[in-house]
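Lab meeting minutes (informal)
Scribe: AK
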Amino acid sequence: MAHDHAHAHTPPADLGPAFRWAVGLNTAYVLVEGAAGFLTGSLALLADAAHNLTDVAGLLIAWGAAVLAKRVSSDNYTFGYGRATILAAMLNAIAILIGVLVVVWEAAHRFQSVVEVPGLTILLVALVGIGVNTGSALLFMRSQKDDLNAKGAYLHMAADAAVSGAVVLAAAGIMLTGWHWLDPAVAIAVSLLIAWTAWGLLRDSLRLGLDGVPEAIDRQAVADWLGAQDGVTNVHDLHIWALSTTRTALAVHLVWDGADADAFLDYVTDELEHDFAISHATVQLERAPCERAGVCLAA
């Protein structure tokens, strides 16, 4: 006996307004920062503007994925399009790492050929960048705990605020001391920090993309709980995987000798959702071999 259960799950949070504001703010800032970079001859501002541009692209990818995740399933995509959120998180992480490489490459060249730039202009533009990116990050702060896709957008914006902060520090240091090497030194330090967070996001999204058990779920705990239920004598073929960055599925075979199958299945699927946040459970009930053959002896 097989039972497929999918609760009317809580839909992903509506990130549309957050994405709209974040994309709008960051696109405007890229234009301002890029113009300032050209006018002042500051490669630091131009590099940061390019980094912000990759973030706008990342936000658009994540936004599209969040919209896809809400579409209902079709004949060809029977689980819906939720996994697009996992792919978006992966692409977001890769975009961050590419941005980091660009910044480090630029910084390495700065050590070799010092470029004198107007510190005050850079400081003021970068201060605006901190405000834009911090504000954008706050838009995703609440959702990022439960949604890997929102976490990607949150990390992107927080990383950019850190980069803008590094540019502010470098500009202030250059104004006070005239040490132009501060600019590439601070940029490299921040880039390493950003790379570390991006690597974690990439690792998590790869895990979900390869049908790994989501990190928040303990597979052994689920197996032990199922094995401890009344009438269950064996648990096998247990699979747990992600349908999206917010939804998890389970399939399992249980050898069971109880009486009321419907009540048992309802209880198990409800508890799996309540205790383990598994909203889509498919449970296959099997009788002991002797019962299937009708040769079990009376006790």
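Next up, CB showed the second protein from the same session:
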Amino acid sequence: MDVSRPGKGRLRVAVTGASGDYGKLLMHRLERDPEVESILVLDVARPEGAKVEFHRVDLTRHDAEGELTDALTERPVDALYHLAFLLGPIRDGSLAHELEVIGTMNVLTAAGRARLPRLVVPSMTAVYGARGNNPALLREESPMQGCPHSRFVTDKVEVEGQVRAFRERHPDLRVLVLRFAPVLGPSVDNPATRFLKRGVVPTLLGFDPLWQALHEEDAARALHLALRADASGEFNIVGRGVLPLSGIIQQAGARPLPLPGPLFRAALHTLDMVGTGTLPVALLDYIHYSWVADGERAESALGFIPYHHVRDAAAALRRS
């Protein structure tokens, strides 16, 4: 079935990670979409929803691949959103790796066996890495330099490699990777929101990199657009405009506190040790250098034009 031109009430959509941040944003849209007939949730917990068909699957288990294949072939779906990625505080890096990297391997194998016509996977613009020699605009073909000291980012880079190899093996399938700028809003919890929600935010003295941000409502729209887009490949999903980090902090209702390098690292390490959930020390590069992604391809291929400016996304944290 061609999901780019669906008939009313005929779309069946499958979702992993429905209870996570991305999943919650998308599920609300799918429930309200009159052309979506049912939502097959492949997860460890059943979410609320009139259209939900729940199939319990733990992506970290050895039998997850078979469970997924059975669920996806028993009643075929038109699209699978693989959204099972950890954005909240991570205390067990090994478990996160199992869920994201091994879990994605299981999902891709099952998707290939079920011959799914469409697969959508979220990523983040952080995979490009923050470097002093970055171009003014990072396009989708730019190398994924990542952040070597951060398993959080490294796992996302590894997942993208898996998905790209899968797309090359299955050129007849539509495989879309949405690289999100930091998603901000009252209902999401990720390293950027935890960093910005503090009253006083430590920054690196002498550096004020340009940041992008994406309002959670725009993130939900982009995910929903991927259901019907006549496209495949990677897409940068960014909000309107850019701001220096200090400006984003102020828009979020906080106050930047510039600290020299050693003191800055010590401050972040202390906050992390006491469990306040601020930005991990491993992500220091993103406080140091700019990483600004070009959203032109998403506009032309997905029809995604952000409604919100970066200042609106940051201000949404203040209202929350």
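CB comment: The mean pLDDT is 91.
No objections, moving on.
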